[in-house]
Amino acid sequence: MYLYLLPLFVTTLSATAQVTDKSLEGRWKLVSYDDGFAIIDVEKDTWIKKDQSEGLNKTYSTRCTPYEGVVRWSRESRFEFNDGVLTILSDGEREAKKYLLEFKDGKTYVRIEGEEDVQCIYIKDGKMHYQDEKDGMQFVFAKAE
């Protein structure tokens, strides 16, 4: 009788599962981010203004905007998680910092060496979401080739 609830239960469990070192392992690329003002799609090279008065359907190119350099950097950069170390690969440089996962109130947080704040992190539909709950910014990553 309650079999129809099983898919909902499984979906809820997978959406709230804790992120582990194993699930983060590998290289990730930034595919989109929300800076509080706009949602930037790195893969499409576009952004959508979050101002409700102009509507959310107007899409702009990142060319000749402050987002152009950030999108170019994002396309070329990779973020690698391996054995408790986050390595950022960008512009031929490597920067490695230790990270620690913390679990609190049903959420997973990541603390990165040398950074003051901890950030909420979760994986949904195969994409890693890295969220600054204080500033409202969110970064979405996909596995890199």
Explain this structure to me?
Strands 1-5-6-7-8-9-10-11 form an eight-stranded antiparallel β-barrel. The longest helix has 11 residues, at 6-16. It is 17% helix and 48% strand. The chain is globular, with a radius of gyration of 17 Å. It is of the alpha+beta class. It has one domain: Lipocalin (Beta Barrel), CATH 2.40.128. The model is unreliable at 1-16 (pLDDT under 50). It has helices spanning 6-16, 21-24, 67-76; strands at residues 26-34, 38-41, 46-49, 59-61, 78-82, 85-90, 93-104, 107-112, 118-124, 127-132, 137-143.
Keywords:
single chain, 145 residues, disordered N terminus, signal, Lipocalin-like domain-containing protein
Radius of gyration: 17 Å
CATH-level-2 architecture: Beta Barrel
Number of DSSP-assigned strands: 11
Instruction: Classify the helix fraction into a percent range.
Output: 10-25%
Helix/strand-derived class? alpha+beta
| Structural shape | globular
Strand residues, percent? over 45%
Order of helices and strands: HHEEEEHEEEEEEE
The helix count comes to: 3
What's the level 1 CATH class?
Mainly Beta
Sheet with most strands: 8 strands, antiparallel, barrel
Give start-end ranges of low-pLDDT stretches: 1-16
Average pLDDT, rounded to a whole number, is 80
